[in-house]
């Protein structure tokens, strides 16, 4: 499978969890060490983003270990059933030690939240992203953290600054403020409240 072809979620998780990681280079403009990698397992190859623990800058208002919050954001997205966060796993033995590994979204990087907002067909996904950020207490939702891929699917990335115990919501997504939360999103929230993912406790 070509590295830029999207595998199924199950295949992606298997490759991310067990594949051999080869670093291609460091991502520019990242405040913490963030690496573009190729990950291969049994003939399946994919591109992924690796964020090692040792590459994090200390923050006064967030505990150590932002990479775990990247994984927790994926687990939250799965629990909600909203498919907003690319497959993400914790890798204890990455090239630079323990860190998160996330499937790279082969996106149209000319697009971002504000261009997507101009197209009504993306509004349901953007509403879900706004609700997700409220639940995750996202302190860093930038416009460029909303991506759209070749399948016209909207993804959210960069969730290291989520899940603080203090209210920290900081986001560019205010355009849906004052609207009622759609029923389909309430269903996901009900599922989350009834059965929080056990993985979150360890993260």
Overall pLDDT: 95
Low-confidence segments: none
Helix content: 25-40%
Instruction: Specify the overall morphology.
Output: globular
What is the structural class? Answer: alpha+beta
**Rg (C-alpha, Å):** 16 Å
Element-level helix/strand string = HEEEHEEHHEEHH
Q: Span between N and C termini?
A: 31 Å
* Multimerization status: single chain
The neighbouring-strand order within the major sheet is 1-2-3-5-4
User: What portion of residues belong to β-strands?
Assistant: 15-25%
Describe this structure in words.
By secondary structure, the protein is an alpha+beta fold. The chain contains six helices and seven strands; from the N terminus they run αβββαββααββαα. Strands 1-2-3-5-4 form a five-stranded antiparallel β-sheet, sandwiched between helices. A hairpin with a 2-residue loop joins strand 4 (88-94) and strand 5 (97-103). The chain is globular and about 45 Å long. The two termini are 31 Å apart.
What is the strand and helix layout of this fold?
Elements: H1 9-18, E1 20-26, E2 35-41, E3 44-52, H2 66-80, E4 88-94, E5 97-103, H3 113-117, H4 123-136, E6 146-148, E7 154-156, H5 183-194, H6 199-202
Question: Summed up, what is this model?
Answer:
With 203 residues, the chain is an alpha+beta fold. The protein has 6 helices and 7 strands.
Note the main attributes of this structure.
alpha+beta, 203 residues, two-stranded antiparallel ribbon, globular, single chain, five-stranded antiparallel beta sheet
